[in-house]
Amino acid sequence: MNSRTVNGTPAQARRFAGQVALVTGASRGIGLGIARRLVAEGARVCLTGRDAASLDEAVTGLGGPTHALGIAGRSDDAAHRAAAVAATVETFGRLDVLVNNAGTNPVHGPLLDADPASVRKTFEVNVFAVLGWVQEAHRAWLGEHGGRIVCVSSVSGLGPAPAIGVYGASKAALIRLTEQLAVELAPRIRVNALAPAVVKTRFAAALYEGRESQVAAGYPLGRLGVPADVADAAAFLASEESSWITGQTLVVDGGVTLH
Predict the structure, then answer these.
(1) Which Gene Ontology MF annotations are present (predicted)?
(2) Is the separation of the CB atoms in 202 and 29 below 8 Å?
(3) Mean pLDDT across the chain, nearest whole number?
(4) What's the total number of domains in the chain?
């Protein structure tokens, strides 16, 4: 990683110098892209994810333990959430930004065919765990010192989503949760959400693999997203440049929802 540039352009004036962030689901994809952007702008970051080896690789890529910490576990595990938040504060001395990125999508097809256990799992990870992360971070640091929270939702949470209706419903709930938390935690903590469309990651591969050109043709900007697109928006919402914005969902979609 070149700390002087981000996505080929000069980095911002180190908006996160001296600050600490925790990014869930950050061993790869969007989460790692967000962590990379925050570190490039001066933050130290705790990454969470299910696979310890992938987290170790991500930490190394971010510059090692001086810049990043990896804590492996499942986002819907309360003990993991408590341990990750505690380790962040113990290691780096503070916690200024929480990015709720971890998500799951095990259900494909019509709602009437959905397995109840899989539906429950989707909401456990995509909604209930997010509230759990916020509660832990609030107890450990944010409640006394303030900070910013960014939740990664999806354009599927803005309207009907064929074949991924369960996922979309969970992301709609996350947007509503973001709004409620923004009211309850103001004025010292700001809470906002992002709603990306299809981003080229392993998580979303089934939505475009083998037909990327066809899918991208439906986007006014002519391409699918990449993790850096979402990272740019997340960094804005996590910075003081968005200091009068809370409870909002920023759509990052290449214009596709205009159709």
Answers:
(1) 3-oxoacyl-[acyl-carrier-protein] reductase (NADPH) activity
(2) yes
(3) 94
(4) 1
Positive or negative torsion for Cα 224, 100, 42, 13: positive
What confidence tier does 212 reach under pLDDT thresholds 50, 70, 90? Answer: confident
Q: Classify residue 205: in a domain, yes or no.
A: yes
Evaluate whether residue 3 is within a structural domain. Answer: no
Residue scoring higher pLDDT (8 or 117): 117
pTM for the model:
0.93
Distances, alpha carbon 245 to alpha carbons 23, 58, 133, in Å: 20, 31, 21
Extract the tokens encoding 112. 């009437």
List the CATH number of the domain containing 126. 3.40.50.720
Which amino acids are annotated catalytic? 167
Phi, psi angles (nearest 5°) of residue 7: 55, 35
Three-state SS annotation for 129-174: HHHHHHHHHHHHHHHHHCEEEEEECCHHHCCCCCCEHHHHHHHHHH
- Cα 151 from Cα 132, distance rounded (Å): 13
Owning domain of residue 61: 13-258
